[in-house]
Specification:
Chain lengths: ~110, ~110
Amino acid sequence: DTAVSQTPKYLVTQMGNDKSIKCEQNLGHDTMYWYKQDSKKFLKIMFSYNNKELIINETVPNRFSPKSPDKAHLNLHINSLELGDSAVYFCASSRGPTSSYEQYFGPGTRLTVT
Amino acid sequence: GENVEQHPSTLSVQEGDSAVIKCTYSDSASNYFPWYKQELGKGPQLIIDIRSNVGEKKDQRIAVTLNKTAKHFSLHITETQPEDSAVYFCAASINFGNEKLTFGTGTRLTIIP
């Protein structure tokens, strides 16, 4: 059983398009995250939700909009895609919002904007 | 905010030798320091962590040390094996409320058979 799953695994699209990435966790966790990993492997948090409530919102362009329909799902919608959005996006989950809880990462979604 | 520096960015060691990765952090209030391992094509996975009330922690071939005065912590892998090849990330945070993890820049470790 996959603990944290993301779809799609690969996403190739053109500049200006709108796309969504979906994430689901079956661990019963309360907290979910979106991270962006750039080409240099730098890993940076974008958003965090706890029990469907936004608790961390980093300085991310407002073209990025997360949505958590329930505790087990956290989706990421990106409007007007730009070349600089190309990266690997990781979803993660943890038991609670405190940083010392282990974070379980999904396999990532490689987004390529052409 | 917190800033975590990690060195080296790449490291190659002969199989069986030891590997050491070092990190420094800027916020003296940080008190939780995990290490994550990212294998090719996968998401990062927690391998060991340490809290500020402990100076050293060991789990089989992996150990982490923490020097709060100098604000640095290190990952030590002994008797390295080919499956240790991966990218390793250190991170730091304040273990309170909704504080985020701040990750280091990563170290690509290659074990040479």
